[in-house]
Amino acid sequence: MSGLILSQALLWIVIAALCVVVLALARQIGVLHERIAPVGALVTDNGPEVGQLAPRFEMPTLDGAPYMVGGPTTLDGLRLLLFVASDCPICKRVVPIARKLARAESLTLVLIGDGALAPLRAMRERLDIADLPFVHGAEIGVALHVGKLPYAVLIDSRSVIRAKGLVNSREHLESLLVANETGHATVQAFMHSREMTHAAD
Description:
This protein is of the alpha/beta class. The chain has 2 domains: about 1-35; about 55-195, Glutaredoxin, CATH 3.40.30. It has 6 helices and 7 strands, in the order αβββαβαβαββαα. It has helices spanning about 1-35, 90-105, 115-125, 140-145, 170-180, 185-200, and strands at about 55-60, 65-70, 80-85, 110-115, 135, 150-155, 160-165. Strands 5-4-3-6-7 form a 5-stranded mixed β-sheet, covered by helices on one side. A two-stranded antiparallel sheet has the order 1-2. The radius of gyration is 24 Å and the shape is elongated.
Protein backbone atom coordinates (compact mmCIF):
# COMPACT_ATOMS: atom_id res chain seq x y z
CA MET A 1 0.00 0.00 0.00
CA SER A 2 2.83 2.39 0.87
CA GLY A 3 4.43 1.62 -2.51
CA LEU A 4 1.21 2.64 -4.29
CA ILE A 5 1.01 5.89 -2.33
CA LEU A 6 4.65 6.62 -3.15
CA SER A 7 4.15 5.98 -6.87
CA GLN A 8 1.07 8.24 -6.92
CA ALA A 9 3.00 10.98 -5.12
CA LEU A 10 5.84 10.69 -7.64
CA LEU A 11 3.32 10.83 -10.49
CA TRP A 12 1.82 14.06 -9.12
CA ILE A 13 5.31 15.53 -8.72
CA VAL A 14 6.09 14.71 -12.39
CA ILE A 15 2.77 16.26 -13.52
CA ALA A 16 3.48 19.41 -11.52
CA ALA A 17 6.99 19.62 -13.02
CA LEU A 18 5.57 19.23 -16.53
CA CYS A 19 3.09 22.05 -15.86
CA VAL A 20 5.92 24.32 -14.75
CA VAL A 21 7.93 23.46 -17.90
CA VAL A 22 4.92 24.13 -20.17
CA LEU A 23 4.29 27.50 -18.52
CA ALA A 24 7.95 28.44 -18.85
CA LEU A 25 7.93 27.49 -22.56
CA ALA A 26 4.73 29.47 -23.15
CA ARG A 27 6.36 32.52 -21.55
CA GLN A 28 9.48 32.15 -23.70
CA ILE A 29 7.38 31.82 -26.87
CA GLY A 30 5.55 35.03 -25.92
CA VAL A 31 8.85 36.86 -25.41
CA LEU A 32 10.18 35.56 -28.73
CA HIS A 33 6.98 36.63 -30.50
CA GLU A 34 7.37 40.19 -29.17
CA ARG A 35 11.01 40.36 -30.26
CA ILE A 36 10.34 39.22 -33.83
CA ALA A 37 9.02 42.20 -35.80
CA PRO A 38 6.44 41.53 -38.50
CA VAL A 39 7.91 41.34 -41.97
CA GLY A 40 6.70 44.27 -44.03
CA ALA A 41 7.14 45.55 -47.55
CA LEU A 42 10.76 46.47 -48.16
CA VAL A 43 11.46 50.06 -49.21
CA THR A 44 14.60 49.97 -51.36
CA ASP A 45 14.60 53.21 -53.34
CA ASN A 46 15.07 56.97 -53.06
CA GLY A 47 11.95 58.01 -54.95
CA PRO A 48 9.13 60.21 -53.66
CA GLU A 49 8.64 59.61 -49.96
CA VAL A 50 5.53 58.68 -48.02
CA GLY A 51 3.47 61.84 -47.56
CA GLN A 52 4.48 63.33 -50.92
CA LEU A 53 2.28 63.47 -54.01
CA ALA A 54 2.52 60.63 -56.50
CA PRO A 55 3.19 61.78 -60.06
CA ARG A 56 0.24 62.02 -62.43
CA PHE A 57 0.43 60.30 -65.82
CA GLU A 58 -2.09 59.47 -68.51
CA MET A 59 -1.08 56.03 -69.68
CA PRO A 60 -2.56 53.58 -72.18
CA THR A 61 -4.13 50.35 -71.00
CA LEU A 62 -3.14 47.08 -72.66
CA ASP A 63 -6.04 47.70 -75.06
CA GLY A 64 -4.93 51.24 -75.92
CA ALA A 65 -7.52 53.20 -73.92
CA PRO A 66 -6.22 56.20 -71.90
CA TYR A 67 -6.08 55.74 -68.11
CA MET A 68 -5.07 58.34 -65.53
CA VAL A 69 -2.57 56.99 -63.01
CA GLY A 70 -2.03 59.22 -60.00
CA GLY A 71 -3.57 62.63 -59.52
CA PRO A 72 -6.62 63.51 -57.42
CA THR A 73 -9.78 61.50 -57.93
CA THR A 74 -13.40 61.80 -56.90
CA LEU A 75 -13.38 58.15 -55.86
CA ASP A 76 -13.22 57.43 -52.15
CA GLY A 77 -10.73 55.00 -50.75
CA LEU A 78 -7.18 54.01 -51.52
CA ARG A 79 -5.55 53.00 -54.78
CA LEU A 80 -2.95 50.26 -54.91
CA LEU A 81 -0.53 50.62 -57.80
CA LEU A 82 1.14 47.26 -58.42
CA PHE A 83 4.14 47.19 -60.74
CA VAL A 84 4.56 43.82 -62.46
CA ALA A 85 6.30 42.13 -65.40
CA SER A 86 5.27 39.22 -67.58
CA ASP A 87 8.55 37.37 -66.95
CA CYS A 88 8.40 37.79 -63.17
CA PRO A 89 7.24 34.52 -61.49
CA ILE A 90 6.62 36.24 -58.15
CA CYS A 91 4.39 38.80 -59.89
CA LYS A 92 2.19 36.02 -61.24
CA ARG A 93 1.74 34.74 -57.68
CA VAL A 94 1.20 38.16 -56.08
CA VAL A 95 -1.39 39.53 -58.54
CA PRO A 96 -4.22 37.14 -57.47
CA ILE A 97 -3.35 37.80 -53.82
CA ALA A 98 -3.48 41.56 -54.40
CA ARG A 99 -6.80 41.18 -56.18
CA LYS A 100 -8.35 39.33 -53.23
CA LEU A 101 -6.95 41.87 -50.77
CA ALA A 102 -8.24 44.77 -52.87
CA ARG A 103 -11.73 43.28 -52.86
CA ALA A 104 -11.63 42.61 -49.10
CA GLU A 105 -10.34 46.10 -48.25
CA SER A 106 -12.24 48.06 -50.95
CA LEU A 107 -9.04 49.16 -52.70
CA THR A 108 -8.76 50.16 -56.34
CA LEU A 109 -6.06 47.89 -57.76
CA VAL A 110 -4.16 49.18 -60.81
CA LEU A 111 -1.56 46.98 -62.50
CA ILE A 112 1.35 48.68 -64.25
CA GLY A 113 3.77 46.95 -66.58
CA ASP A 114 6.25 47.91 -69.27
CA GLY A 115 7.97 45.93 -71.97
CA ALA A 116 6.33 44.14 -74.88
CA LEU A 117 2.52 44.22 -75.00
CA ALA A 118 1.97 40.64 -76.16
CA PRO A 119 3.46 38.95 -73.05
CA LEU A 120 1.56 41.34 -70.75
CA ARG A 121 -1.70 40.53 -72.55
CA ALA A 122 -0.92 36.82 -72.28
CA MET A 123 -0.29 37.32 -68.56
CA ARG A 124 -3.66 39.05 -68.21
CA GLU A 125 -5.38 36.15 -69.98
CA ARG A 126 -3.57 33.52 -67.95
CA LEU A 127 -4.43 35.19 -64.62
CA ASP A 128 -8.00 36.01 -65.75
CA ILE A 129 -7.76 39.65 -64.65
CA ALA A 130 -9.39 41.40 -67.60
CA ASP A 131 -11.61 43.31 -65.16
CA LEU A 132 -8.62 45.10 -63.59
CA PRO A 133 -7.08 48.30 -65.00
CA PHE A 134 -3.76 47.21 -66.55
CA VAL A 135 -1.72 50.08 -67.94
CA HIS A 136 1.42 49.97 -70.03
CA GLY A 137 4.46 52.22 -69.83
CA ALA A 138 7.60 52.98 -67.87
CA GLU A 139 7.07 56.67 -67.06
CA ILE A 140 5.46 56.37 -63.65
CA GLY A 141 7.78 53.54 -62.62
CA VAL A 142 10.77 55.73 -63.44
CA ALA A 143 9.23 58.68 -61.57
CA LEU A 144 8.63 56.51 -58.49
CA HIS A 145 12.10 54.90 -58.74
CA VAL A 146 10.68 51.39 -59.04
CA GLY A 147 13.58 48.98 -59.38
CA LYS A 148 12.76 45.40 -58.40
CA LEU A 149 9.37 43.77 -58.92
CA PRO A 150 6.69 43.27 -57.77
CA TYR A 151 6.52 46.72 -56.23
CA ALA A 152 3.44 48.36 -54.71
CA VAL A 153 2.54 51.98 -53.98
CA LEU A 154 -0.52 52.84 -51.91
CA ILE A 155 -2.00 56.28 -52.66
CA ASP A 156 -5.09 58.06 -51.37
CA SER A 157 -7.77 60.00 -53.25
CA ARG A 158 -5.56 63.12 -53.30
CA SER A 159 -2.71 61.04 -54.79
CA VAL A 160 -0.64 61.29 -51.60
CA ILE A 161 1.68 58.32 -51.17
CA ARG A 162 0.56 56.49 -48.01
CA ALA A 163 2.93 53.49 -48.17
CA LYS A 164 5.16 51.69 -50.65
CA GLY A 165 7.60 48.84 -50.97
CA LEU A 166 8.73 45.61 -52.57
CA VAL A 167 6.07 42.94 -52.02
CA ASN A 168 6.02 39.19 -52.52
CA SER A 169 3.31 37.95 -50.15
CA ARG A 170 -0.05 38.87 -48.65
CA GLU A 171 1.73 39.89 -45.45
CA HIS A 172 3.80 42.42 -47.39
CA LEU A 173 0.70 43.84 -49.05
CA GLU A 174 -1.15 44.02 -45.73
CA SER A 175 1.83 45.80 -44.18
CA LEU A 176 1.18 48.71 -46.56
CA LEU A 177 -2.32 49.05 -45.09
CA VAL A 178 -0.93 48.80 -41.56
CA ALA A 179 1.63 51.50 -42.35
CA ASN A 180 -1.16 53.71 -43.67
CA GLU A 181 -3.34 53.13 -40.59
CA THR A 182 -0.54 53.81 -38.12
CA GLY A 183 0.76 56.88 -39.94
CA HIS A 184 4.26 55.43 -40.26
CA ALA A 185 6.12 55.06 -43.54
CA THR A 186 6.74 51.36 -42.95
CA VAL A 187 5.83 48.65 -40.47
CA GLN A 188 9.49 48.61 -39.44
CA ALA A 189 9.27 52.31 -38.57
CA PHE A 190 6.15 51.59 -36.50
CA MET A 191 7.93 48.80 -34.59
CA HIS A 192 10.94 51.05 -34.02
CA SER A 193 8.72 53.79 -32.58
CA ARG A 194 7.11 51.23 -30.25
CA GLU A 195 10.52 50.09 -29.08
CA MET A 196 11.56 53.68 -28.41
CA THR A 197 8.34 54.28 -26.45
CA HIS A 198 8.92 51.17 -24.32
CA ALA A 199 12.54 52.19 -23.74
CA ALA A 200 11.42 55.65 -22.59
CA ASP A 201 8.93 54.09 -20.16
